[in-house]
UniProtKB/TrEMBL annotation:
Gene3D superfamilies: Aspartate Aminotransferase, domain 1, Type I PLP-dependent aspartate aminotransferase-like (Major domain). Belongs to the class-V pyridoxal-phosphate-dependent aminotransferase family. PROSITE patterns: AA_TRANSFER_CLASS_5. Pfam families: Aminotran_5 (PF00266). InterPro entries: Aminotrans_V_dom (IPR000192), Aminotrans_V_PyrdxlP_BS (IPR020578), PyrdxlP-dep_Trfase (IPR015424), PyrdxlP-dep_Trfase_major (IPR015421), PyrdxlP-dep_Trfase_small (IPR015422), SP_NH2Trfase/AEP_transaminase (IPR024169). One of its GO terms (biological process) is glyoxylate catabolic process. It is an enzyme of class 2 (transferase). SUPFAM superfamilies: PLP-dependent transferases. GO terms for molecular function: alanine-glyoxylate transaminase activity; L-serine-pyruvate transaminase activity. Its EC number is 2.6.1.44. It comes from Dendroctonus ponderosae. Substrate binds at residue 364. This is alanine--glyoxylate transaminase. It is found in: Peroxisome.
Length: 396
């Protein structure tokens, strides 16, 4: 063999601790980290050990996802990949070539969904928010649905690139009236704001494991209601990607007929599922309402501290701000990159710059899961204050 073992692989892995206060991933709690070092079980292990087997863990995760989505949908599970996979899976299963899809865009995630939908052959219509830092009104949404008559309306509840919160309440009534499906991206928002999937008549939704749930990246909670399932059953063309095929995944997760044997679709990551199980269990322990309140309190504390530092928030109106990702305008004469580098080098603290339409214009501070504490907010504010002093550009 000519290729030598790489020198870098000769020593064991050591990862420094960093406080992740960017838009995700967040730090996992010790309980979750401990779960990640539990023994691997086979993905089809039904043997009972200490009253526990792998299918039971999957069932517990399913119930936990139903809880955080506030849904009774049977077709609820975790897809084996990050938040993007949730986006792929909803679009891949619900859209067919030439279907019209309407996408609300107030940051990069709506644009990303448009990109994916086009790859599945859909005709993409966009409703773009041009006023920076604002969300869509119900009237704007209804008008666009009336004009475009889409099969599916795609909405991002928490735009992590702009820090905008899009209320979902009331949209489901519109989509039902126009015989349209409502799909919601909750990757950056689930657990920081209410999401009442059934009550708000959301037909399909997905999230990510690594943000407010606080588990490692790599799993996407997802749920489809009966209306969405009917759309899938009535498809004229096959679901184009095997890996996202929710009818097969639903059989692996025992979402359909209780007595049917589970199907092997793919080898799930036992370790990641343990982490997600614990992340959901921690939320269930604390109570979803309390988790949401904790995030909102921390966000209010951050807003106050930012204004006290003389900085401005990117989203003017407080009710339009996403509590889990705060966008803060980069003050004139400050090099944003120097600030984030200072925070990381000096304090091992991650805060991020902007993304897409906010690139170079804002800092993004994440308040997510285990990291959503008053102490961490005080720390972020202290570090920001110090970092700003060290990051004034000489040219301005
Ligand atoms: N949607 C939103 C709103 C997000 O914030 C993100 C991740 N930042 C994604 C989708 C994509 O998730 P992932 O990076 O886990 O694939």
């Amino acid at each position: 063999m000519n290729v030598r073992p790489p020198l870098g692989l000769k020593s064991p892995l050591r990862i420094p601790h960093k406080l992740l206060m960017g838009p995700g991933p967040s730090n996992s709690s010790p309980r979750i980290l401990n779960a990640l070092s539990q023994p691997i079980l086979g993905h089809m292990h039904s043997e009972l050990f200490d009253k526990l087997h792998f299918f039971q863990i999957m069932d517990e995760i399913k119930k936990g996802i139903q809880y955080v989505f506030q849904t009774n949908n049977q077709l609820t599970l975790a897809i084996s990949a990050s938040g993007h996979a949730g986006m792929e899976a909803v679009l891949c299963n619900l859209l067919e070539p030439h279907d019209v899809v309407l996408i609300l865009i107030n940051g990069i995630w709506g644009e990303r969904a448009a990109n994916l939908a086009e790859r599945y052959g859909a005709i993409v219509r966009k409703l773009v928010k041009t006023a920076l830092g604002s969300n869509f009104s119900i009237i704007e949404i209804e008008n666009a649905v009336k004009i475009h008559q889409p099969k599916l309306l795609f909405v991002v509840q928490g735009e992590s690139s702009t820090g905008i919160y899009q209320p979902i309440i009331g949209i489901g009534e519109i989509t039902r009236r126009y015989n349209c499906l409502l799909v919601v991206d909750t990757v950056a928002s689930l657990g920081a704001v209410p999401f009442l999937m059934d009550k708000w008549k959301v037909d399909a939704a997905y999230s990510g494991s690594q943000k407010i749930i606080g588990a490692p990246p790599g799993l996407a909670p997802i749920s489809f209601n009966e209306r969405a399932l009917k759309t899938i059953a009535n498809r004229k063309t096959p679901i184009p990607v095997y890996f996202w095929d929710i009818t097969l995944l639903g059989q692996q997760w025992n979402c359909f007929e209780r007595s049917a044997p589970r199907l092997y679709h793919h080898t799930t990551s036992a370790t990641l599922l343990y982490g997600l199980r614990e992340g959901l269990a921690v939320i269930a322990d604390e109570g979803l309402e309390q988790v949401i309140k904790r995030h909102q309190h921390c966000a209010a504390q951050l807003y106050e501290g930012i204004e006290a530092l003389g900085m401005q928030l990117y989203v003017d109106e407080e009710h339009k701000r996403l509590p889990s990702v705060t966008t803060i305008k980069v003050p004139d004469g400050v090099d944003w990159r120097k600030v984030t580098e200072y925070a990381m080098k000096r304090y091992k603290l991650e805060i991020s710059g902007g993304l897409g339409p906010t690139a170079g214009k804002v800092f993004r501070v994440g308040i997510m899961g285990y990291n959503a504490t008053q102490e961490n907010i005080v720390f972020v504010l202290d570090v920001l204050k110090e970092a700003l002093k060290h990051s004034v550009t000489s040219s301005k």
